[in-house]
Each structure stands twice: as C-alpha cells, then as structure tokens.
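hey can u check if this looks right to u? its 165 residues, i copy pasted from the old doc so theres a chance i mangled smth
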Amino acid sequence: AQPGHQVRDSLDRTLARFVVPAAVVSSLVGLLVFYGVLALSNPDPAALEPAAGNARTALTSFLVFVGLFLIVFVEPPIRWFAVAEPITRDRRPTYLAIGLGLAFVAVLLLPPARAFFQLIVPAPRDALIVILAVVAWVLLVRTFWAYRVVDRFLGRAPTRSEATG
C-alpha cells in the first residue's frame, strides 16, 4: 500500500476507464491498417493472397507495438505517459517493452523466425503505415485517457484535481 488518499472506485469502472479506449482505438485503427495495406498492396481481387500476407504482417506489427506501448502506459517512466496511471521509478517494464520491440523487429528480419510466424518483410510503405498508425494510436488513446472520456460517457465527470492529474 502507498500512503496518501485512496480513491475508491469499482473495479468495473477502473477497468473500463483503461481498457475501453485502448480496445476501441486499437480495433478501429487496426482495421484501417489491415484494409489500407490490403488495398494498396494489390488492387486486383484475383491476386489476393500476396496482398493478404502484407496486410496480415502490417496488422500483426501494429498490434504488437500497440501492446508494447500499453506496457509503457501501465508503468509510465515519464510524465507524458502518466495519464492513466501514476508515474513510476521502475524502468524495467519500459526496458522490457523496448527489448520485445527489438525482438519483434528481429523476427521480421530473420527468415526462419519470419517463416515460423507466417510473416513477410514489410515493404517500406507498409512499415510507414504501421509507424503512423502506432503514433496515431498513442496520441488518440492518451487523449481519451487524459480527458477521461469513459467517465464522461458513464456520467461521472472527473473532479478538477482528477482532470489536471
């Protein structure tokens, strides 16, 4: 336990406040990534298989990096990430996320690992789409958490001290 004022809130509301924005934004942006890469890879419906591989790899990459950013948001090492949870001095979760991100890039670069997961080397255009989608996800989710959109939707407006952090 940590000293100080304890905020008593239901587990449902606490989970909804964190999970709903992340899940909804991940789903919507993930769909845009998948179908965007699919449409850009091959507009010919007759040759759908190679385009589906590109789209699958882009979606997988997007979801992996989004999941790694969730680790950073749960245990924020700096103030900018501390919108849903308080800042922590423990940097190990952030180092874990960085290490896993590098491991995923290695999987994409190593043919045996890439074949095992049925991924392909992303084209530069697809990699750029994934990077932009991850950045958009981070900004959107951070905004939803900072403005407590779920609390407002459920009818509990945050107090002034909660809204300012």
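The mean pLDDT is 87.
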